[in-house]
């Protein structure tokens, strides 16, 4: 079978694209290698998605998206894509299980935050360890927060977190920030911001919730345990040391910028009939709301491409 649209990735961008494509009566296949939903399935509360006034969990929101897409006729399969061929008019996507063909492809493989890589991090993600200040900052109202990183994003997010936390401390492995000077100037003027230099968090601890972490001075080798205030019981660690876009499959096939796929505002890549949506794109904001918008645009553009390039 040759589908109208194949969507690689089953996060918010892919599911939104699937919804719009299927609703337009295009034969649509969504391929996901892991669990559908992407990063949002690890989010306990979604407060900033328009209309989510009851603060649904990430999994609940994704279940709704899946039901909508399937309700309009989108099909979904679980498979790991190992190779793609975008050279011909009909695109070929090869998985470990099957080979799939389509008139258009929407790449929505996403990106994941780069972790610290220390013991306890995975277990306490969503329980004190976070990678998104916009998503989770409000949960740390009047608590202490530590931000790991020293680039533009880390410092900007640290300043954003001062709107909620009573104190924010940036932990950076070097003796000076890497952020732009203009951003640094603002940070150093912020009375709620503090800094720990030449240091890294080497372990996070807690029984079901973040309670302490091990801080190592990278120059002296000294280690000490930082424990949450007794009255608070917990604090936050926000990690901003970069993202890892899932684009290795498209090396030398699609244009990239710092490993992110380059598109125009209509989600067109440099290859006709191939579009990209969501966190995998080079863009300024990676949130569910922007991912779903990308997916909708990509699906509409795929429909127009098919109308212009394929006869009935």
From TrEMBL:
Principal EC category: oxidoreductase
The record's EC number reads 1.8.1.9
Q: Catalyzes what?
A: [thioredoxin]-dithiol + NADP(+) = [thioredoxin]-disulfide + NADPH + H(+)
What does the entry comment about cofactor binding? Answer: Binds 1 FAD per subunit.
Task: Write down the species.
Answer: Tissierella creatinophila DSM 6911
Oligomer status and interactors: Homodimer.
Q: Which residues form the FAD/NAD(P)-binding domain?
A: 3-295
Gene Ontology cellular component list:
cytoplasm
**Family from the record:** Belongs to the class-II pyridine nucleotide-disulfide oxidoreductase family.
What GO MF annotations does this protein's record show? thioredoxin-disulfide reductase (NADPH) activity
The regions listed as transmembrane in this protein's record are none
Q: What is this protein called in UniProt?
A: Thioredoxin reductase
An example Gene Ontology biological process: removal of superoxide radicals
Which keywords does the record carry?
Disulfide bond, FAD, Flavoprotein, NADP, Oxidoreductase, Redox-active center
């Amino acid at each position: 079978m040759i589908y109208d649209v194949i969507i690689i990735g089953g996060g918010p961008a892919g599911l939104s694209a699937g919804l719009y494509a299927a609703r337009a009566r295009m034969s649509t296949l969504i391929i996901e290698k892991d669990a559908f939903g992407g990063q949002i399935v690890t989010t306990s509360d979604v407060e900033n998605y328009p209309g989510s006034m009851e603060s649904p969990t990430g999994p609940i929101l994704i279940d709704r998206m899946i039901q909508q897409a399937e309700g309009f006729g989108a099909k979904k399969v679980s498979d790991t894509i190992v190779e793609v061929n975008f050279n011909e008019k009909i695109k070929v996507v090869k998985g470990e299980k099957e080979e799939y063909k389509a008139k258009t492809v929407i790449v929505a493989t996403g990106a994941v935050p780069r972790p610290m890589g220390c013991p306890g991090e995975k277990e306490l993600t969503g329980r004190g360890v976070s990678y998104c200040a916009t998503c989770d900052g409000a949960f740390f109202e009047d608590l202490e927060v530590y931000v790991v990183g020293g680039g533009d994003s880390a410092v900007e997010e640290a300043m954003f977190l001062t709107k909620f936390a009573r104190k924010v401390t940036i932990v950076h492995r070097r003796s000076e920030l890497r952020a732009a000077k203009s951003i640094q100037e603002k940070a150093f003027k912020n009375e709620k911001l503090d800094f720990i230099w030449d240091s890294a968090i080497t372990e996070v601890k807690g029984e079901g919730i973040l309670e302490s972490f091990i801080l190592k001075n990278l120059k002296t080798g000294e280690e000490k345990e930082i424990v949450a205030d007794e009255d608070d019981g917990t604090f936050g660690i926000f990690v901003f040391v970069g993202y890892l876009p899932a684009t290795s499959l498209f090396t030398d096939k699609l244009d990239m910028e710092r490993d992110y796929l380059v598109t125009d505002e209509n989600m067109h890549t440099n290859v006709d009939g191939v579009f990209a949506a969501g966190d995998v794109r080079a863009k300024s904001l990676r949130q569910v709301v922007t991912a779903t918008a990308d997916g909708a645009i990509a699906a509409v553009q795929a429909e127009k491409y098919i109308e212009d390039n394929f006869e009935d």
